[in-house]
Amino acid sequence: MSEQNDVKTPDVNEHGWIQAQPVPNPGIEEHVNRWSDEDEGANRRATRQIVACFALSPLFAIAFIVAYFAIPGPLGRNPEESYGGPIVPVLGMSAQHFYMGLFLGLAILLIGIGLVQWARRIMNDREIAEERHQLSSTPENKQLVLEKLEAMGKDANIYGRRSIIGWSLLGALGLTALAPLVTLADAGPWPLPSTRHRTLERTLFAETESKTIYLVNDVTYERIKASDMEIGQLINGEPSNLEELHHSDPARFQSEKAKSAIIVVRMDPNTINITGREDWQVGGILAFSKICTHVGCPISLWEQQTHHLLCPCHQSTFDLGNHGKVVFGPAARALPQLPITVDAEGYLIAQRDFEVAVGPSFFERPFNRENDKGEY
Amino acid sequence: MAKPAQVSTEVVQPHNAVKPNPPLKKLGPAAKWGDDRVGLGGIGNFLLRKIFPDHWSFMLGEIALYSFIILLVTGVFLTIWFKPSMGEIEYQGSYQLLKGLPMSEAFASTLNISFDIRGGLLVRQIHHWAAMTFVAAMMVHALRVFFTGAFRKPREINWLLGVGLLIMGTIEGFAGYSLPDDLLSGTGLRFADGLIRSIPLVGTWVEFFLFGGEFPGTLIVPRLYMVHILLLPGLILGLIAAHLALVFYHKHSQYPGPGRTETNVVGIPMFPTFAAKAGGLFFIVSGFLTLLGTFVQINPVWVVGPYNPAQVTAGSQPDWYMGPAEGAVRIMPNIESYIGGTTWSWNVMIPGLGFLGLLFVSLGVYPFIEKWLTGDDSEHHIVDRPRNAATRTAIGVAAMSVYAMFWLSGGNDILAIRFHVSLNQVTEVMRVMVFLAPILAFIITKRICLGLQRKDQERLLHGSETGTMMRTADGGYYEPHLPISHDEAWTLTQHKQYMPLDATAADDRNGLAKKDVVSRNRSRWSRWFYKDRVEIPTAEELIAARDHIEHEKHGELDDVHDPELTGKH
Questions:
Q1: How many structural domains are present in chain B?
Q2: Over its length of 569 residues, how does chain B's per-residue pLDDT go in tens digits?
Q3: Do B191 and A190 touch (CB under 8 A)?
Q4: How far apart are CA B114 and CA A75, in angstroms?
């Protein structure tokens, strides 16, 4: 081979790399004709197929429009029908959805396939080399820019003592641009101690101060009778005043529900540890916050025999038979327990609010060893 | 790149078989009108025959772009019907199972789109599939750019723009996912709220300002709606415009090959061939997403029902790109500190914010770290074959393995159920795997890369196998080799091989600018990065090797006994 004469020996250059390139650049590879370039029949076939794609596409587009109008949709012509229009067998989906999607998809896809086939089989496929241009500007250009900057400075006339004009303008722009940000300060109430006390650190159970708050079923709002609960049973509960709130202040409803949701369980009193919280329960019936202390998912997976409660979001596991302590997972704090008792008729009522804020941690939350770690 | 064994020494000059079209004036008065006003001719001259290298991996970014266009089109349709309000109403639509239930207007209008608007379900599902594809395509595109070293000078700015797009695409996806106000999206927001709260000092303030008070309040859906349909799409559009403008200015990078150099770009012209292929791909992506939206159900919100902060479904999972953050939050040990009446939730902050932060920051700084290790200030338009940058490739695969481990951890409950193993053990194993997997991946990948480099060297020095067995007169066997083509030999040898930077000796430092001094530390890292490699053979070695192969081909038995050639090492 002729290139053997002009070889370069490897040598680390001043940039710190070897670019030996012992083989000289062969230049762009020889173009190989495609079958459709060589064979007239293949070329005609390719043309026919591409035109077929482009011809079929509008037919499918029209079919799409027809499907929109002709096939009774989910809305249906007949409001008596449960799900409007006809259903595609096997797939079980709305026929209107099915045919509209199918026809539109095919109409679009065929244009794409036609275009790509045109490019691959008919269009010239010879590769071309183009020189790259220099990305940085030329030295002359740089020189010109320097001169213009110089002229710019002169025209602005801010050299020397007057440079303070420029700096003061920058300061003015900066502060004026930042100033309107103050309007965002009303994006929400400020979580100052008094606000936190009214919101994050308080649930609807705090209203026990003024009235009796019953523990109620979270769907039916029915009161829970202690004697009706079996050992091992779990009831998803809410405070009875949540229902009133739904009517009186619907905007607050979800936020209060997010804090007040509770789990009411009945366990065999002989199998659980209630040290320090002897009077928070009614014959083995205990109430805990349902909101995970990790990031706030409602916890709901109950293991009757172990008294463990598992959060389905991140698998934190709490032992309700032992102060709601964390036994597994990423949660760091025990589930807060709600002190409960019964009224004269035997219905479960709250004694007072939780002793600590429920739900996920926040920066200003003070630590409470008894409630947060279940240690007495 | 690897080409069949054939000797091609002929240098082919590229030329156009087709004569160029007649100039502008033939395009008629319209072109003249435009040229007179905005200099259309100049734009045409720049664009019409601009060269784009043709390679399948260059389509990944295009797929992301086209998914985004689909998102804009389908998104406009959805805004016609969607009501971003958390005000409670009683559902009276045609989905019988939820009839009469109280729910937010946002959820009710999502049901309305799905059941009562003709084509609504189709468009909603296309929108969601396009969102998944958008983020996925961006990520795979970023991997292509990473592994081929296409982020190097002069493309660092475009890499940063890409990282910005990835961040915004992720947030945009999360905002969209939160809008329907169904049970899953509400749970996702609850998770985000827990994450925000864990930020030290300002977490509670950020929570109150975002939600307009306590979670969930009544403002988050309308606020996220603004973010989702105006703020982020606008920013993403701007970044895409800048990203594409830089691609045009730099001209596309290209894979090594015959005739490809750092000063040229070899490929097909913008019009008609590239436009037909790229336009065709747009329609194929759109058509494919339409068929996905037709046949593959996604996010059936009516199954889980409206958001209720006291309920959750088991096995709830976010969209796929949130998986690693979710996994990190799941497997993090439960560490929390209580200092002077404050709570520091490391168990949420480190995995939730730290993981995503680390991911995006390390993506952002990587090009600059690598430049620090090479000290290379030259332009790179020929991309690397991943094997030739063994340590970079190994780092990339190690990072992918960390991502994969966290992603799997995000489904630790699903893994436990599907494989009938203990959930607790899955969690504990994943805690180890997120550290072990990258180490293994790094070592294995680096070895594979070096093995591939060795294979390249083998082809250069020994030629390619012929598959023919020859028996010699004295009963020996050997397989003759054929020399590889000139094109292939060039492709395998054209790249740069970096030498580790040597630390500047103390007495050499005088008079050097600070930036020219190589510290001992930098030298150590540079050595770690570049010391392992298989040298490119020198020209002399290649000539000697070719002579051996030529002799062997002519059956010169003396050479056959050479262990180098017979493979009896």
A1: 2
A2: 444 444 334 444 444 444 445 555 567 788 888 889 998 888 888 899 999 999 999 999 999 999 999 999 999 999 999 999 999 999 998 888 899 999 999 999 999 999 889 999 999 999 999 999 999 999 999 999 999 999 999 999 999 999 999 999 999 999 999 999 999 999 999 999 999 999 999 999 999 999 999 999 999 999 999 999 999 999 999 999 999 999 999 999 999 999 999 999 999 999 999 999 999 999 999 999 999 999 999 999 999 999 999 999 887 888 999 999 999 999 999 999 999 999 999 999 999 888 889 999 999 999 999 999 988 889 999 999 999 999 999 999 999 999 999 999 999 999 999 999 999 999 999 999 999 999 999 999 999 999 999 999 999 999 998 899 989 899 999 888 888 999 999 999 999 888 888 888 877 777 777 777 888 999 999 999 999 999 999 989 998 888 887 777 665 544 444 444 444 43
A3: no
A4: 10
Question: In chain B, what residues touch A332 (CB-CB under 8 Å)?
Answer: 334-336, 345, 347
CB contact under 8 A, B265 and A101: no
A40 backbone φψ class: left, alpha, beta (φ>0; ψ -120 to 50): alpha
Residue B505's domain spans which residues? Answer: 450-523+535-566
What value of ipTM does the predicted structure carry?
0.92
Q: Flag if A20 and B201 touch (Cβ within 8 Å).
A: no
Q: Cβ neighbours of residue A370 under 8 Å, at least 6 residues apart?
A: A276, A355, A376
Residue B112 in domain: no
Same domain assignment for residues B143 and B268: yes
**A18:B536 CB<8 A:** yes
The chain A residue lying nearest B330, using CA atoms, is A314
**DSSP reduced 3-state for B46:** helix
Per the CB < 8 A criterion, the answer to whether A22 and B537 are in contact is: yes
Torsion sign (Cα): B145, B150, B152, B153: negative
pTM for this prediction:
0.92
Closest alpha carbon within chain B to A293: B194
Using a CB–CB cutoff of 8 Å, tell me whether B14 touches chain A. yes
Q: Is the Cβ pair A261, B10 closer than 8 Å? A: no
Q: What is the CATH number of the domain that holds B274?
A: 1.20.810.10
Token duo for residue A20? 């030996």
